[in-house]
Every structure is written in C-alpha cells, then in structure tokens.
Amino acid sequence: MEPVKVGIIGCGNISSAYFKGIRRFPVMELVACADIDLERAKARAAEFDVPVACTVEELLAMADIEIVVNLTIPKAHAEVSLAALSAGKNVYVEKPLAVTRDEGQEVLRLAKEKGLLVGSAPDTFLGGGIETCRKLIDDGWIGTPIAATGFMMGKGHESWHPDPDFYYQVGGGPMFDMGPYYLTAMVFLMGPIERVTGSARITFKERTITSQPKYGQKITVNTPTHIAGVLDFKNGAVGTLITSFDIRGGTSAFPRIEIYGTEGSLRVPDPNTFGGPVLVQRAGAGEWSEIPLLHGYTEQSRGLGVADLAYAIRSGRAHRANAAMAYHVLEAMHGFHDASNEGRHYVMQSTCERPDPLPLGLPDNALDE
Known about the structure:
Blueprint: E1 4-9, H1 15-23, E2 28-34, H2 38-48, E3 52-54, H3 56-60, E4 67-70, H4 77-86, E5 90-93, H5 101-114, E6 118-120, H6 128-138, E7 145-153, H7 173-190, E8 193-201, E9 206-208, E10 218-220, E11 226-233, E12 238-244, E13 257-261, E14 264-268, E15 279-282, E16 289-290, H8 304-315, H9 323-342, E17 346-347
C-alpha cells in the first residue's frame, strides 16, 4: 500500500504526540509541517526530522499531500479545515470539530461536495481500553445498557498549560475541551443521543495564570466552567455527565465513566487515555473484577484516527473517528449550554452510526488485518 502523504498545520503543545504517532504507521508519510509562527514549525521539523517546514499557504499548495492534520486552536479549526478541503485535501482535525454548529455543518457540506473525508479527534476510543469495553458490551457482559455516568472535574488549566487563555473563551471551557472525550466514548459504546438538558455556570469570572511563561497574567472567563448534563440515548439509556474547571478537591472517588446494564456494571477507563483498567461487576458479585485488555494501542497513541483515515482513503472503507460523530458530539455540547440558557430540553437534530470496533488480533502499527 502506497503511504498517504500527511502535512500538519499547527505546531503547538499537542503536536509532538502527533509527530510521534503518525510516524508509527507505515500507511502514512509525514512530509511537511506549518504554523502561523514559521520558527515554531521549523523547530518541530528539526526535532522530528520532517522534510519541509513552511507557511500554511505553502503546505496547502503541496500537491502530494492527501491529509492535512489540523492542530490549530479551536476557534481556527473550521477556517483551516475549510481551507484544506478547498485545496483538495482530506482533513483530520483536533477536537472539537468546530466552535459553532454552523461552522461544523459547513465543514461537512464542503467535504461532501468535494468528495473528501474529514476525521476528528478524539481517537482515544480506538485504544485498547475502550475497545475492550465495546467488546464486553457487544457480547452482553452487562446485559442491556440502561444508564451511564461521566465525571471530568478539576481546577482548570491555568496552573500547567503554557498558554491557557483560550480554554476560558467561547469554544473552550471544560465541556468543549474535555467533553469530546467523554461524549465520543459514550456514543461509541452506546450509540447516538436523542436529547440533552443541562445547567451551566461561570464560578470564577477571572483566573490568574500560575504556569510559565505567562505567570501572573489575568484571564477573563467568557464561557461556563461547570456544566451538569443529562443525555437520553436512542437505545433508551439515560446518561449523566459533569464537566468542571471549578473543583478544588475531593474528586478522586468519582469514576471517569461507568455504564450500568441489566446484568451488571462496567467501569470505563479515562477516555483521555488509550489503556485501562477495565472493570466489571456482574449481578450478584461482591467486587469489581479487572478484565485483561483484548486490543492493542494501550499507550499514548495519538494519530490512530489519522491512520484509520489513511486506511479509509486507500481501501474505500468507512473511517471510525469520522466527522458525522464529531458533529453529533459538537451539537450535544451546544445542547447542554442551550438547555441551561433557555430552560428546556434540547432535541438533537443530528445522528450518527456507532463506528465499527477494531478487529481483534491486529498486528502492531496497523489498523487493518
């Protein structure tokens, strides 16, 4: 199989994981990187031995690039993805797919018009932990899923991130930053969402950065930082999801995600990681039992979604971390905020298919048998 040539736009904090991950798969060849700060692109190219470091415009003009990996900040996601699609490139974008629903719909519309594919993070559901959970659910270990809970609670990113301001602007906050991991995992495991409701608030209207290099600078908070949501899934299950940047302690007892079925319960690992542990408690059992992971890719494996997109381009099969699911998640996140602002349930306008699970027994560094 001829490798799919890949270019990365956006050489910031998250990019190093993609530079490493893409190199893992023979189905891809990383040929160029770009950034609005050309020196930053040159530094990444030197660090990871990438042949070309260039401007965004120059990368989009490279005829041999088939996939653009869009690692820009959220408010630039749609603009860069649309530019790449207009240039005839398939796109894989960091989460969220876009900031607004209108932008997300425009990305889907242009991709369809151009006959191109769009993939979107997160791809952590392709890791061994959540793939094992999917196998257990599909094989009936917990019976029919009837409910789920998810908790992502912490004190925010200003204590560790080098440039945390955008996490507190529209398109940021705990729901848009971390919600995609939790919602994507839930949709992959249980299917699409029919309606949501929620309550949201801004607790601290100003935050002080305590990380370097912007130590001491103030952030004005312009997006909710604590969101409590309820989800009704198409399969009848009821989910609860809390995401917060306002918690100062006492969160260790909460599971990341648990799914409750008619025959038992399943504790899903952190959806921001690729591994385990995976725990099951069957009806009548007194304790949780850890289940050995049935799939590979249990370590840091960002780039799995890009690789799956590359296989789809070469084989014509569907790709798993796809734009339809990413848009469905985007709409649900907005739905929580709309429900809080308007005092009503939000009925989902989009739907998606549950992506196929990965086959068992895949060789290393491959996603097809």
